[in-house]
């Protein structure tokens, strides 16, 4: 049965390792994947350009008997088409969609609008599992097919979607992940807890000043020739204390990967004051343990002879195997989830969420915790805390702690963050509502 890949946590650890192994076999003998992909149509709905990924997808489809079509080829007016309209139209013709969009949760919204599987190639600041898989495969190849034991993800961990997917992917491979955010660039708590809850591994947090110590000690981050090896996101930070220095030095002894995430306009996050988007972001020297290039090449650096061919030789069969996984396998034992949601109920507070920005995307929440009740937006993952609930039959709302809420049938229950939100939706305050902060104008 076909399946979508919307997050790195959708892949079980053994599936990710198996994907890498099978892509090596496919590189030597592509006949098996040709049998599975022959005659299939793959559509790339890229609201944000990704020419190299698109070229690799076209090559993967051509070598495996499938056909690749861009959104413009299918929809004509693309990318002016809205998210749901584009997914519905492309899904009517294609067997699989790849979605790359500036809104968080766009890939999940597209999957809800069509019956074909969807691969997430980047949705706002949320995740980019397709590119993370390619990056992790390249890293393993450079390390003699060994998975990293420890990795540091540094910099703008709030808005960099590749960093979010790498954190999950590295954890899935069994690596210890160190999170070292720039000032104001902390990875959102719900992303960290999501990794820990699904994979059972908790990324380790470091203070920003610890990263300054790491960079000073390692001397591996190069922005431009002739300039100091200090990333501008961390300039002006105070020197680390003795304990931070000890922890940073201890972490460095086992580190296999240092990844520095910088702000990029395509992720949808704001650039810090005085910062500029640098398509050449810091490059790690080809020395020692710290070799990783997730974004391409530094400005002015030509690829080494055979470098591009070697990268393509890894990426093309891996993408073909990813298409096979989506089209030909069922997800591994995913437990049933308790969800809720209503077009007239609580709204996601994330202004960059697809459910907040597109009226055709129906709100949907995962019940993350019961006591106290915490809902998690199914599109962007941001948690919300409802304070009121009501019945869509009686059209009255109550404080969440009210016994009346427990008597409402689950299918009729609507949650609200505030009483104002409830009354804007046409609900009236129950007569029993108190006079505290739960009081509505109709009480």
Written overview of the protein:
This protein is an alpha/beta fold. The protein has helices at 13-28, 31-37, 51-64, 71-75, 83-91, 106-113, 129-142, 161-172, 189-199, 208-218, 242-253, 307-328, 354-357, 403-406, 419-424, and strands spanning 41-46, 67-70, 96-101, 118-123, 150-155, 176-181, 204-205, 221-222, 257-261, 283-284, 339-340, 365-369, 374-377, 383-384, 388-391, 396-399, 413-416, 428-429. The protein folds into three domains: 8-124 and 309-328, Rossmann fold; 130-300, Rossmann fold (3-Layer(aba) Sandwich); 339-429, Roll (SH3 type barrels). The chain has a four-stranded parallel β-sheet with strand order 2-1-3-4, sandwiched between helices. The protein has a four-stranded parallel β-sheet with strand order 7-6-5-9, with helices on both faces. Strand 12 and strand 13 form a beta hairpin. The termini are far apart.
Tally of discrete structural domains: 3
Q: What is the rounded distance between the termini? A: 51 Å
Order of strands, widest sheet:
2-1-3-4
The pLDDT mean sits at 76
Instruction: Outline the biggest β-sheet.
Output: 4 strands, parallel
How would you sum up this structure in a few lines?
The protein has 443 residues and is α/β, with parallel strands linked by helices.
